[in-house]
């Protein structure tokens, strides 16, 4: 990624931090995204977990409330976004393609609708896998490339197919699966959202 593009992306999210309507600091804890990630990561007490591209920490906030004995970290390119992350969650400003953490630092990691902004997707997937220890779990929820065009997107955003991301995760993880999901468990998925679940 060129420094110019990175600066543009960062500036876009710094600006978005002021938009609570489209970039809220909270999310309904009953949505299926929350439940699925929690199920896949398993019990978090005593574990260290990374929220990759956490924004204002809407998911991290829920897991912190549900699992007070977990060590939750949030990483985002925008320091303006990180200012909204509640106390008790560790934050770090940085890029998904150069995570500022040691190999195997985390027991688990998840990325919800953030990988699409990484530009160098393969590099970001490799980095997420690198910072998770062997046996650790990774969950990625994002949009399906086959539904491209349904939403307005910035020029750098990229969606991926089910198989494409399975392949990328499969280079670093021993188990990878994926499924179509929707925000609510009782609503049939319409093909927009996919969840990829991996074990390193």
Description:
The model has no long low-confidence stretch (mean pLDDT 96). This protein has 6 helices and 7 strands. The longest helix has 14 residues, at 3-16. It has one domain: Vaccinia Virus protein VP39 (Rossmann fold, 3-Layer(aba) Sandwich). Strands 3-2-1-4-5-7-6 form a 7-stranded mixed beta sheet, sandwiched between helices. Helices cover 28% and strands 24% of the residues. It is an alpha/beta fold.
By CATH, the topology is Rossmann fold
Give the strand line-up of the largest sheet: 3-2-1-4-5-7-6
Q: What is the total tally of β strands?
A: 7
CATH class: Alpha Beta
The amount of helix comes to 25-40%
How far do the termini sit from each other?
26 Å
Count of helical stretches: 6
Number of domains: 1
Main sheet attributes: strand count, strand direction, barrel closure:
7 strands, mixed
Beta-strand percentage range: 15-25%
Task: Give the full name of the CATH homologous superfamily.
Answer: Vaccinia Virus protein VP39
CATH architecture: 3-Layer(aba) Sandwich
Q: Which sequence of SSEs, written as H and E, runs from N to C?
A: HHEHEHEEHEHEE
Radius of gyration: 16 Å
General form: globular
What is the residue-averaged pLDDT?
Answer: 96
The assigned structural class equals alpha/beta
């Amino acid at each position: 990624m060129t420094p110019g593009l990175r600066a543009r992306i960062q500036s876009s999210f710094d600006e978005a931090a002021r938009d609570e309507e489209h970039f809220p600091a909270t999310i309904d804890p009953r949505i299926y995204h929350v439940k699925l990630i929690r199920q896949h990561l398993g019990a978090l007490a005593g574990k260290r977990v990374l929220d990759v591209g956490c924004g204002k920490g809407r998911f991290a906030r829920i897991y912190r409330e549900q699992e007070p004995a977990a060590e939750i970290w949030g990483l985002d390119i925008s320091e303006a976004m990180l200012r909204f992350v509640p106390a008790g969650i560790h934050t770090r400003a940085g890029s998904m393609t150069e995570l500022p953490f040691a190999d195997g630092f985390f027991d688990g990691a998840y990325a919800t609708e953030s990988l699409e902004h990484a530009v160098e997707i393969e590099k970001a997937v490799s980095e997420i896998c690198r910072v998770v220890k062997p046996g650790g779990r990774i969950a990625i929820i994002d949009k399906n490339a086959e539904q491209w065009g349904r939403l307005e997107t910035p020029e750098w955003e990229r969606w991926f197919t089910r198989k494409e991301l399975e392949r990328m995760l499969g280079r670093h993880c021993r188990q990878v699966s994926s499924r179509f999901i929707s925000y609510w468990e009782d609503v049939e998925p319409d093909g927009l959202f996919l969840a990829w679940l991996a074990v390193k």
